[in-house]
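Hypothesis: this fold can be encoded by more than one sequence.
Test: take the structure tokens below, design a sequence, compare later.
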């Protein structure tokens, strides 16, 4: 892992965490209304996957999409302004938390309907295939969406037509408050792709380096004409399903266990050449030993002072985003009408 890539991973993961915590704070202050689904704990998936993509690729996301947009390059101030419902937001204040859209960066939106990302990604993939372009549609979805009919229909079409689509399951083990073994007969989600002859595998979604490695390989295979691919990223959200969910249905020992493998902390451990002793490693348990030895005994490209500098940089960026959102004006009805009449032949959408 070269220094620049490592630094980019670390910066984006720290930015993601700082942004989401700031969003939670603004929600409690009443500056953000409606639903707010936050991402802390899952940063390794967004960073690992999206850093493997090319600028010409398309990203289709779910309602938990703030971090996907940030990693794709959407300015934090535009994302925050959208959460505030302000005119300077990336969707002009009319989409809100679940409907970010960035045409310039081919971020095709967050979608509030569970399972809606599949047909959108399939449509994008079909358009790419028809034009014979070296592009890929990245389709994010959660474990709770794999029981929707659109999942099976879309995987079947993608395989049948060999569409350039990468299906990315962010498996955080809970469909809102229902644990995966209570809502799915097949809990190893990646195995479902076998029914449609799509190569698939599972990866540790708390490990940004493994996610990036697997995604990079699959994208190369797709671009070479291999058809769709499927990756299941096993991850964990450290907060409830949304700001309205305290997450009390989850055992605290489970939350603490996953928090101990926090991907942001892991990225910092990889970046800073401060290695624990054998005695310290032995005292924290088997899983932590594997985690630290895989990620911590690395290159040491950054020193602690530089890590602190990155933290300060992203905190300032997030604070500026909050202030920008507060100063942004509210959208006007005239703007909504202009958005309604945007089709090529000026036909109405309703």
């Amino acid at each position: 892992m070269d220094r620049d890539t490592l630094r980019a991973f670390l910066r984006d993961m720290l930015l993601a965490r700082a942004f989401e915590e700031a969003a939670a704070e603004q929600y409690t202050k009443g500056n953000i209304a409606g639903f707010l689904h936050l991402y802390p704990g899952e940063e390794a998936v967004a960073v690992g996957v999206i850093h493997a993509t090319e600028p010409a690729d398309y990203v289709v996301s779910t309602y938990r999409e703030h971090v996907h947009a940030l990693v794709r390059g959407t300015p934090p101030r535009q994302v925050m302004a959208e959460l505030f419902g302000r005119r300077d937001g990336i969707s002009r204040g009319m989409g809100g938390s679940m409907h970010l859209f960035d045409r310039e960066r081919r971020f095709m939106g967050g979608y509030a309907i569970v399972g809606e990302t599949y047909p959108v990604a399939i449509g994008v993939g079909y358009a790419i295939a028809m034009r014979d372009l070296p592009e890929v549609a990245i389709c994010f979805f959660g474990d709770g969406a794999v029981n929707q009919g659109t999942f099976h229909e879309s995987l079947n079409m993608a395989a049948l037509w060999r569409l350039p689509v990468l299906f990315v399951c962010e498996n955080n083990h809970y469909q809102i408050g229902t644990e995966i073994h209570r809502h799915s007969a097949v809990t190893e989600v990646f195995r479902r792709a076998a029914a449609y002859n799509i190569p698939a595998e599972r990866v540790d979604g708390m490990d940004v380096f493994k996610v990036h490695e697997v995604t990079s390989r699959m994208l190369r295979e797709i671009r070479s004409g291999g058809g769709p691919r499927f990756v299941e990223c096993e991850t964990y959200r450290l907060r409830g399903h949304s700001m309205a969910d305290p997450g009390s249905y989850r055992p605290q020992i489970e939350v603490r266990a996953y928090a101990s493998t926090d991907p942001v902390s892991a990225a910092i451990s990889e970046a800073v050449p401060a290695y624990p002793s054998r005695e310290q490693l032995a005292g924290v348990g088997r899983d932590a030993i594997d985690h630290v030895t895989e990620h911590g005994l690395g290159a040491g490209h950054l020193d602690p002072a530089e890590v602190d500098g990155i933290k300060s940089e992203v905190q300032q960026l997030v604070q500026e985003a909050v202030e920008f959102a507060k100063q942004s004006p509210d959208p006007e009805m005239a703007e909504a009408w202009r958005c309604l009449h945007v089709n090529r032949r000026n036909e109405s959408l309703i």
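Strands lie at 58-62, 107-111, 137-142, 165-171, 174-175, 178-179, 200-204, 229-234. The two ends are 51 Å apart (CA to CA).
Hypothesis status: open.
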